[in-house]
Amino acid sequence: MGSTQLPPGTEETLAATTAAAAAPGEPVEMVQLLGPDGKLGTDPVFSDYAKRIDPEKLRVFYTDMARIRRFDQEATALQRQGELALWVPLTGQEAAQIGSGHASQSQDYIFPTYREHGVALVRNVDLAELLKQFRGVSNGGWDPRENNFHLYTLVLAAQTLHAVGYAMGIQRDQKLAATQDSTDSKAAVIAYFGDGASSEGDVHESMVFAASYNAPVVFFCQNNHWAISVPTEVQTKVPLANRAKGYGFPGIRVDGNDVIAVHAVTEWALEHAREGRGPVLIEAYTYRVGAHTTADDPTKYRESAEEAAWREKDPLERLEKYLRAEGLADEAFFDQVDADGDELAKYVRSTTHGLEVPDIREAFANVYAEQHPLIAEELAWFEEYSAGFESDEETAN
Amino acid sequence: MTVKKFNLPDVGEGLTEAEVVAWKVKPGDTVAINDVLCEIETAKSLVELPSPFAGTVTELLVEEGITVEVGTAIIAVSEGGATDDATPDGAAPQGQPTDAVAAAQAPAAEEVFTPTYGKLVADDSSDSGLAGGPLVGSGPKADAVKRRARKRPAGSVVPAITVAENAEGTVQDNQALLAAKAAEAPVAHRTTPVRAVVEPVTQVPAASAPQTPASQPAVSQPAASRGAAIGGTISGLVSRVLAKPPVRKFARDLGIDLADVVATGQRGEVTREDLVSYQAQRDAEHDQADSFWGTSKKPQDQRIERVAVKGVRKATAKAMVDSAFSAPHVSIFVDVDASRTMEFVKRLKVSRDFEGIKVSPLLILAKAVIWAAARNPSVNATWVENADGKGGAEIHVKHFMNLGIAAATPRGLMVPNIKDAQDLSLKELALALNELATKARAGKTQPAEMQGGSLTVTNIGALGIDTGTPIINPGEVAIIAFGTIKQKPWVLDGEVIPRWITTLGGSFDHRVVDGDLSARFMADVAAILEEPALLLD
Prior knowledge:
Chain A is α/β, with parallel strands linked by helices and 397 residues long. Helices cover 49% and strands 8% of the residues of chain A. Chain A has two domains: 342 residues, Rossmann fold; 38 residues.
C-alpha cells in the first residue's frame, strides 16, 4: 500500500496505464472496512487504525453524519423558500467528511471547497454562520483562525495552492521551533477538492510543489462522480488516486461512504504528513446523491438507476446497521439523534431569518488596515450616492 | 392570527420567472414548515417549494399554469391556525364569504414574506410586535426577510410612475389575467372553485368593483391534452382493439369507436375508465367548439385569444426555426406494400414470447430504420458547425442509434429517444417503445431521455395521415414520417388486388445526405416493411 516508488520500466507504466484506461473508474484497490451490509472487514494496514475508534466515537460519527444531513435538508428548504441565494447539498458524502474531519487534530489546518459542511460541523463552525455566505450577507461568515477551518473557496481548486503554501509555512515554523526547543505539537494541512477540480491546473501545481518540498499536506479528493454534469470518466482515464504515483507520493482510494475506513486512512495520512514524510493523496470514492447546487437539475444528465444504486451504499444506513448489530446503540439513541437534528434545523432556520445585510461601509473599512485617501474618496462618493434616494416609503408590492 | 404571503423565490441562480405547475395544497389545508406547497417549473428545472410557514392555507394567489415573476406573492397562509379564535370549528370554514369571517380577516396584519436575495432590506418594523411562531415576524430580527422595492433617485430624469409600471408590469398583467379568468367562470370549461370561494374574503378590504366579462378580454387555457387522446391509436387502426364485452357495449352506447381510445389496460385493452376519460375529453372539446366563435357583437380585436408562448411551445418553436433555416431540407416519399409487415405484427401478437406486449407496425418500422441506418451510416449523423474552432465544419457519424420517437404529450411535442436501440432485440425494442409512449403520454418524459437523439421517427399515421414533410430534429440529419397503413388497390403481377399500403416520407439535411443516399436509405426501410424477413439477414 502506498508505495512512493515509480514503476521501474516504461513498458510497465504503459501497460498499467492502458489497463486502467480500458476500465476507467474501476477500483484497482479500495480500502473498505465497513461494507454496505454493515459488516466490519479487515485491512492489513488500516484495521489497526480502525481499532482506535471506540464505541463512543462511533456514536459521535453517526450523530454528526445524521445532523449534517438534517442540516443539509433544512438549508435546501431555506433556499427553496428564498432565504438563501444558493445551496450546495452534501447528501451522500457525509462519511467522507465526518470521517476525515474527525481524523484531524485541532492544530491541523483545513482548506475546504464550498461543500465541506460536514467538516465544518466537526471543526465546531457555527452552521448558521456558514449560511451567511449563501444568504449573500458575508464574503466569509466565520473567523477561520478560531477553528483552523479556512473560509469556503468558490474558485475551483484554488484552495489546494493555499493549502500547500500553508503547509510549507508550517515546515518553516517547525524548523524555527526546533531551534527553540518548543513543545508545540506538529501540524498538518488537509486540502479538500473534488473530482472536477482534479482537472484544474492548480491541483497539478499544488502536487508538484507539495512533493518537491515534502510538505505536510493531505490532498483529500472527494470523488463524488459528477463535476456538475460531467462524469468522472471524462475527467480521468485512471483512478484519481493513481495520479499520486506520477508526483511521487502515496495515493489511496478509500470507500468514501465508509466512515471508519475514511477515518483510518485520513489518520494514517495525517500522521505520515506530520512526521515529515510528505504529502498523501486520498481519493474518497463517494457519490453526490443530490444536485450539484440548488440551481442544478441532475435528472438532465444522469439516470435515476445510478442514484438508486448509490443509495444502497448509504453511509448512515451501514453504520446504523453496524451499531445495532453490535448492540452499541439502542432505539433511544437514534430517537435522540433525530431530535437533535430537528433542534439544529430549528436553530439554523430561526438564526438564518435573523441574518441581516451588513452595512456596506464595513467593506470600505476593511480594505486597508489604516486610513487610505482613495478609499476615503470612494466612501464619500458612495455616501452622496446613497443620499440621492427617496425616503423609506415602500412601493406597492 | 397573522396572514403571511409567500413570494415566489429565485430557486436557481438569476431566474426571473417560473410557472406554477401544480398546487399540492388547497385553502383550508393545514401546513407545517417544509411541507410541499407546489411544484414550479423554471427555465432550469421542475422544483418543489416547501412551506416557510406553519398554519392554515387561506388563499392560492396564482393559478396552475400561470407564469409569474420572481417576487410575486403566490400563496397566503394564516399562522397560528384558525381554531384558536372565537369562530366555532366548521361553522365558518376558511374563505366562506360571510361577514363574520370577513371581519375576522380584515384586521389581520398582512405580512409579505419576501426573499432577500439581491434586494435591499427594509428597516421599518411597523408591523412587528406579533408574537407569532418561531419564524419571521417574531422580534426585532424579522426585518431581514422583508424586502423593500428599490428606491428611486430623487429628481432623476425618469418619472417615478413610469419606473413603477416597468417594474410591476408583468405581475399586473397576470393579475388582470386571473381576474379575467375568474370573471368568465361560467363559460370556462375549467372550473375555478378555489378562486370562487376565496375571492370575497380578499376583495372585502379592496372594495373592488365587480368586473364584467365585456370589460376584459376572455382568455382561456388551450385544450391541454388533445395529443394524449391520439397518441396510442395506431394499434386501433390496424387491428381489432382489445376490450371486454361490457366495455364494448358501453362504447357502442356512447357512440365511441374503440380504436380512437387510448388503452391503458394491463394487456393493452381499453378499460371502462379509458372510455370515461375519452368521453369527458370529447365533451370538453365539443363544448368548446360550440362556444368557440365569439359573439359578433364584440369588435373583432376583443375576439382574439392571446396565448403566451412558453415552455415546450417556446422550445419547439425555436428548435424548428433553427432546424428549418440552417439545414437545407430535402423530402422524398415512397409507397410501400406493408402487407407482410401486417402479417408479421399479427403473428407476433399471438406468439407466446410477446404475450402482454403491445406490438404495432411502428415496431417493425423502428427495426427497419435501425437496419437501414447501418447500411447507410451518413443518415445517422450530426452536422457540427465550426468544429475545429476555425470555422471548419465536421460531420459526426454516430455508431449508435438513439432512436427518437416524436410524441404528442400533455405538455406538447416531445421527442424522447431510445438509447442504443441497435442493441435491442425485437422484444426489447417493443418494450422500450411501449415504455417511451406510456411515459410521454403521462407527461413524465425526463429531459435526459430527450437528449442525444440520432434519428427520429414521427408516427403521423396514428392520426390517419398519409405522409408529410417533417422538419428534422436539431442535431440530427434525417427524420422519417410513418404514414397511415390502409387497404388500397395495388397492382401485383398485372392484377389489381387490395393490399395494406403505407407511405414513408423522409426529410434529410442535404449538407450531409445527398439524394442518392437518402433514396437508398428510404428504399432499404421500405424493403423491410415489404419483407420483414430480411431482418433475419
